[in-house]
Amino acid sequence: MQIAVIGTGYVGLVTGVCLSEFGFRVTCIDNDSDKIAKLQQQIMPIFEVGLEKLVENNRKAARLSFSTDLAQAVGAADIVFIAVGTPQNDTDGMPELSYFNAAAREIAKALKNYTLVVTKSTVPVGTNRQLAKIISETNPDADFDVASNPEFLREGAAVEDFMSPERIVAGIDSKRAMEMLTKLYEPICLNGAKLFFTTFESAETIKYVTNSMLATRIALINEVSDFCEKTGANIRDVAKGVGMDYRIGEKFLQPGPGYGGSCFPKDTMALQQMARKVGVDISIIEATINSNEKRKLKMAEKIVQANGGSVAGQTIAVLGLTFKPGTDDMREGASLVIVPELLRQGASIRAYDPQGMKEAQKYLNGDIAWCKDVFEAIEQADMLVLLTEWNEFRSLDLKKVKAALRKPLVVDLRNIYKRQDMMKNGFHYVSIGRQDVIPGQPWISDLNMQDEKAA
Fold it and tell me: Fewer beta carbons below 10 Å: N end or C end of the chain?
C-alpha cells in the first residue's frame, strides 16, 4: 500500500514515519522546501523521542521519502493523509482552515485512481463533509472516499502513542473506507489497539471533547492544589487518593503552572466557539479556559511572594521553558506568561532548557541570559524556579545548588522534590498544594514526606 502524508509537522511527520515502520511505502510532502531538504539529510524539524532513528532506518529500507511534489505522491497513493496546520485564527479562536482547504484542492487535482483521503488535522465539526464537497467540485471525475481519523498523540511520547494506542477513531461514510482503514491499521490492532468506526461528525467531536476533558482535569487539580495549601491538605495525597478510584484514574491529576502546547488551548477554545455558534451553553469549558489563563499569572505572583513580595533587581534562575518535558515545543507554555511577568516586575532571568533553548529565543526577549547548562543558570542567582519537569532536574546535587545560589530559595512549580530533602539541605522551599508543616500532626507530615516521590 502506497501512502502520502501532506504536512511534516508533529502529526504528519510522526504519522508518516511510523506507518513506514509498519512496512508501508510512505512519501511525506511539504511545500517548505528547506524543511524537506533537511529531512532528506535526516535533520529533524522537531524533537521527538525515537523519531530520528526511525527516519534513518526507514529511509535506508527505501520505505520512507520526503518531497515537495504533492501531485506525484498523491497520484501514486492509495491513501492520502492531510496533516497540515490548523492554527487558531485571530478573530474568534476557531481553527484556520486555509491551509487545509488549499491542500484539499491540490489533492483533488492530483487524484488518478481510487484514493482514500484521510483527515489527521484537527478540524471543526462538519469539515470532512466539506472536504468531500471540495474534492468533488474541484475534480468531478475523482474516485475517492473521505475519512476522519483524529490523532491523540502526546508530544514527547508521540511515537509510542502512534505505535501502541489505546484506540483508533475513524469517521467514515462508506464500506470501502472502512475496509481500507482496517487493512492499514491491522498491524497496530494486532498489538491490542481498538479500531472504532463512527460518523464524520462524531469523530471530529471526539477529538475536541477528549482534549477538553483532559484540560478540565488539569484546571481542576490546579485549583484544588490552592485549596490544599490553605487547609493543610497535601495535593500529592489528594491526587493519589482520588486517582485510585477506577472511575477517575490517576492521569492528568498532577498540579502545575497551567496546561499549554498545541492541542489543549486551541481545542478548548474551538469547542467553546463551536458551542456558541449552535447556541449551546458549555460553561464548564469556558471556566477551564479562564482558570488556566489565571493560573499562569498566579504562579508568577507565587514566585514574587516567595521572595518577599518583590523581584525587582533580583536574578532568577529558570529551569525548563517548554510547555512539557520531552519536546522543544514552546506553544502556549506557562513560561511565555511567567517569564515576561517576572521581567516586567524588574527581575533578570538566567534560563536553561534541555531542548527548548532555540525555540524559546523566538518567543522570549528582554533581560534574559541563555545558559548552556543547569549550573550556569543557577550560578549567583537569587532564587531558583523549576518550571518544566525534565528528568535531568529531578536529581540535582542539592549541596552544589545551595552553594551556587545567593539565597537558598527554590520555587518548584512541578513538585519535583521532596520537601523533607529540601528542608534538610537548608532551602526555603516553595511548592504547589503542600504546606511545609502540618500543625499538631508531625507524624503525618513525616509520613507524607517519606511517601512523596519525585514523579
Answer: C
Q: CB atoms < 10 A from the CB of 362, how many?
A: 8
C-alpha cell at 442: 508531625
Number of compact structural domains in the chain: 2
Q: Is residue 243 packed enough to be buried (19+ CB in 10 Å), middle (13-18) or exposed (0-12)? A: middle
* CATH code of the domain in which 368 resides: 3.40.50.720
> Sign (positive/negative) of CA torsion 397, 416, 357, 343?
negative
Query: Does 422 reside within a domain?
Result: yes
Pair 157, 229 in one domain: no
How far is it, in rounded angstroms, from Cα 156 to Cα 104?
A: 29
220 and 353 together in one domain = yes
Q: What is the dihedral of CA 175, 181, 186, 192, to 10 degrees?
A: -100
Do residues 145 and 280 share a domain?
no
User: How far is 401 from 384, CA to CA, in rounded Å?
Assistant: 9
In b/e form, how buried is each residue of 134-162, taking b as 16+ CB within 10 angstroms?
A: bbeeebeebebbbbbbbbbbebbebbebb
Collapse the DSSP code of 32 into the 3-class scheme (helix H, G, I; strand E, B; otherwise coil) and give the result: coil
> Which alpha helices (DSSP H) does 245-365 contain, by range?
264-277, 283-306, 335-344, 357-363
In a domain, 164, yes or no: yes
Q: Which of 172, 198, 224 is the last residue of a domain?
A: 198
Residues 6+ apart with CB under 8 A from 128: 119, 146, 147, 148, 171, 200, 203, 204
Q: In terms of domains, do 25 and 141 share one? A: yes
What angle separates helix 442-451 from helix 235-243, to the nearest 10 degrees?
A: 60
Q: Answer yes or no: do 190 and 280 share one domain.
A: no
Catalytic residue among 18, 28, 228, 263: 263
DSSP 96: P
Q: Virtual CA dihedral for 308, 310, 315, 317, nearest 10 degrees?
A: 60
Distance CA 355, CA 220 (A): 29
- Condensed to tens digits (0 to 9), the pLDDT of residues 221-259 reads 999 999 999 999 999 999 999 999 999 999 999 999 999
H-type alpha helices, 170-254? 175-184, 186-189, 200-231, 235-243
CA distance 301 to 430: 12
Q: How far is CA 109 from CA 103, 121, 123, 134, 204, in A?
A: 10, 20, 22, 11, 25
**263 given a catalytic annotation:** yes
